[in-house]
Amino acid sequence: MNMPSISPADPVQPGFIHTDDGVRLYYRDWGLGKPVVFLSSWSLNSDSWAYQMLALTERGYRCVAYDRRGHGRSSDPGIGFDFDRLADDLATLLDTLDLDGVALVGHSMSCGEIIRYLSRHGSRRVSRTVLVGTMTPTLSRTDDHPDGIDPAIFEAFRSDWLMRDFPAWLEDNIRPFMTADSSPGMMAWVKSMALQASMKALLDCHRATTSTDFRRELRDITVPTLLIHGDLDVSSPLGITGRKTAELMPNATLTVYEGAPHGLFLTHMDRFNRDLLTFLDA
């Protein structure tokens, strides 16, 4: 007797889906109700959203989060770290789980994945988006973006730190990601997630994040969007990211947290969870 065939996008075991290029993506799926899908930042994984997922499931939401390819428990294929492929991975997740009316919540790099998903696959499944510490619209300085960051700074990080001693860089930069009163345990937890990521994924994703220009795409995104950004964010400086993204998106609202760093969803957890629930309940 022949076994039924399984398409690449079908779940083959609980907690994993397969993309059409054979990559296994780990996901977690908690609760029932309106779906909220969380996308983590560069180097982090679905664990990073645990405190938001707990808060929302207690309020009757269904919360899904997944590990980007090359991150956490997902496969490390060594390829596919451009925004088109990463957006297609998100599409695979939403299609496989057949999620509709979804709120997409992204942090840092993954805000670009959300924007590329909407421009590439449309908003049929999406009701609203939340972009936290976004790196859109574009980070690097160019002739038509003189306020950006010198690309040589990004290249120096990749050659001098990422490709030589990433753990040392994490040790030096975890505190600016958090706050002075963040616990040693919380900081150690965040660093442990980053150290699970594939170095190839980190390198290629960093190149994509620091070189991709989303300005044209942002103008066409009409779903209700909440942007939350800290004014002490050194990874995504507010003036060239959150503010400019809000100006370009026709249906976006920007909320600035005074004294908040890039990891504000952890350092300002109570306020962030309240704002997230208010936006989702609206």
UniProtKB/TrEMBL annotation:
Name the Gene3D superfamilies on file: alpha/beta hydrolase
User: What GO molecular function terms would the record report?
Assistant: hydrolase activity
Keyword set for this entry?
Hydrolase
| GO CC, alphabetical | membrane
Keyword set includes Nucleus:
no
Instruction: List, alphabetically, the SUPFAM superfamilies matched.
Output: alpha/beta-Hydrolases (SSF53474)
Q: Where is the AB hydrolase-1 domain?
A: 34-268
Which PANTHER family does the entry link to?
AB HYDROLASE SUPERFAMILY PROTEIN YCLE, MONOACYLGLYCEROL LIPASE
Give the protein name, as stated in the record.
Answer: Alpha/beta hydrolase
Q: Which organism is it from?
A: Azospirillum brasilense
